[in-house]
Design a protein that fits this description.
The protein is 19% helix and 31% strand. It has 455 residues and is α/β, with parallel strands linked by helices. It is elongated. The structure holds uridine-diphosphate-N-acetylglucosamine and calcium ion.
């Protein structure tokens, strides 16, 4: 096998996106679109991957990190000029260079592999990945001669009516013989409608030198969609969503309405999990078997245990144990760890807290910066008063305690094992083991008061 190199073009501002965010960093299901391109190229076993950055170079580098080398294209003078920026790294190498746009995130690894193989087996100096689409507006058209050989690519803006009627388009992905590429790039000029140096012009240059140029046509025209505006972005998100959901469905996950379920590319789900509509699961979330998620639930970067049920809730950066019952309408904020057989009910917010096995927080509570043991019952309306305006303080509730309704636990404070707190208490001092704490005004009844008032 020949050595393989890749150049990803990502220097353009992406004017048509109408955004402050650089085009290739726009996320599709939680991951910048350029990352999909890099990930899909990974199986090709590249010797080098060079990303051409311009606008937003620092942010692109920060997002992509060590997955690529970077070269700056200071001025965006066109796609040929962009590839030329990689000359210092690549020009003397022998092998195949694939050029890919950072804005075609849907191309699958299999398609890249087929393109490489087609190129290497045919002995071409250039192989264009093309596809046939109904509405080719905006794309470069593939112009073939009478015998069907590729002659050149003409950009939409430079095409005459006859050329515009061609439905075979340049997907913006090509394999080149590396040395032929860099020698042809020097000959590209910018005499065209956009006064840009067009990479597709390399095809015509190689043809004029009697070099072999071919096309590999992929039938899946959706895969090669270039994301130039937010209409295409929404379309790509939709396609990626279905692709991901179908992979889970095939693995034995039930997704009752795949069109209305959003699962990020890094999420892993065991078989026999059920996901109901309106659910968004992102980050490095893992969901274990027999969990039931949704409807209308948002989970980001969490581990969800076996048999746990989560309905209409929001959970972030937390670990949830087995057979836990959460919601409806619970909010579990980062750094929370919940044990097994726990109940977190409606209108409960939990932040940066540990909850032990079988503990119940059934309704209307705020538990923040707290450590709760096992077998505790938290009455409705209990609040951990964790913030004094400057610092956050810890509340500790030990095993088998019982906190009465509408209690305030003013942190730092500890309720020791097996204790009771009377409903309506404001607890400011530690409660010793096995005791009852009552911290509220005593009730007085003024009998006959109302009758006197009305007289
Ligand atoms: C390009 C192709 C067109 C093809 C289409 C497929 C050219 C001239 N045209 O058109 O034939 O049908 O892709 O989607 O190549 N970029 C740079 N530096 C530049 C200019 C562009 O890095 O100076 C990058 C952009 O960030 C983008 C990619 O190159 O990722 C393609 O540029 P774009 O402006 O989107 O080209 P298209 O007009 O879509
Ligand atoms: Ca494009």
């Amino acid at each position: 096998m020949k050595k393989r190199f890749a150049v990803i073009l990502a220097a353009g501002q992406g004017t048509r996106m109408k955004s402050k965010l650089y085009k290739v960093l726009h996320p599709i299901l939680d991951r910048p679109m350029i990352q999909y391109v890099i990930d899909a190229l990974k199986p090709a076993k590249l010797e080098k991957l060079v990303t051409i950055v311009g606008h937003g170079a620092e942010r692109v580098k920060a997002e992509i990190g060590t997955n690529s080398e970077f070269v700056l294209q200071e001025e965006q003078l066109g796609t040929a000029h962009a590839v030329l920026q990689a000359a210092d790294i690549l020009k003397n190498k022998t092998g195949t260079t694939i050029v890919v746009c950072g804005d075609t995130p849907l191309i699958k690894p299999e398609t890249y592999e087929k393109l490489f193989e087609h190129h290497e087996l045919s002995g071409s100096k250039a192989t264009i990945l093309t596809t046939i689409i109904k509405n080719p507006t905006g794309y470069g058209r593939v112009i073939r001669n009478e015998s069907g050989e590729v002659e050149r690519i003409v950009e939409h803006k430079d095409a005459d009516d006859k050329e515009k009627s061609v439905n075979e388009i340049n997907t913006g992905t090509y394999c080149f013989d590396n040395e032929a590429l860099f020698s042809a790039l020097k000959k590209v000029n910018n005499n065209n409608a956009q006064q840009e140096y067009y990479l597709p012009d390399v095809i015509e240059i190689l043809k004029a030198e009697n070099e072999k140029v071919t096309a590999f046509t992929t039938e899946d025209d959706e895969e090669t969609t270039g994301i130039n505006d937010r209409v295409a972005l929404a379309h790509a998100e939709n396609l990626m969503k279905i692709r991901i959901n179908e992979a889970h469905l095939r693995n034995g996950v039930t997704i009752t309405d795949p069109n209305n379920t959003y699962i990020g590319p890094d999420v892993t789900i065991d078989q026999d999990v059920i996901v109901y509509p309106g659910t968004v699961i992102t980050g490095k979330t893992h969901i274990e078997t027999e969990a039931v998620i949704g409807p209308h639930t948002e989970i980001e970067s969490c581990t969800i245990g076996t048999g746990t049920v989560i309905r209409q809730s929001v959970i972030k950066n937390s670990k949830i144990g087995n057979d836990v019952n959460i919601g409806p309408f619970a909010h579990i904020r980062p750094e929370t760890s919940i044990g097994d057989d726990v109940r977190v009910g409606n209108f409960v917010e939990i932040k940066k807290s540990t909850i032990g096995n079988t503990t119940k927080v059934p309704h209307l509570s705020y538990i923040g910066d707290a450590k709760l043991g096992k077998g505790i019952n938290i009455g409705c309306g209990t609040i951990t008063v964790n913030y004094d305006g400057v610092n956050k303080h810890l509340t500790t509730i030990e095993d088998n305690s019982f906190i009465g309704c509408n209690s305030n636990l003013v942190a730092p404070v500890t309720i020791e094992e097996g204790s009771y707190v009377a409903a309506g208490s404001t607890i400011t001092d530690d409660v010793p083991k096995d005791s009852l704490a009552i911290a509220r005004a005593r009730q007085t009844n003024k009998e006959g008061y109302v009758a006197k008032l009305k007289k």
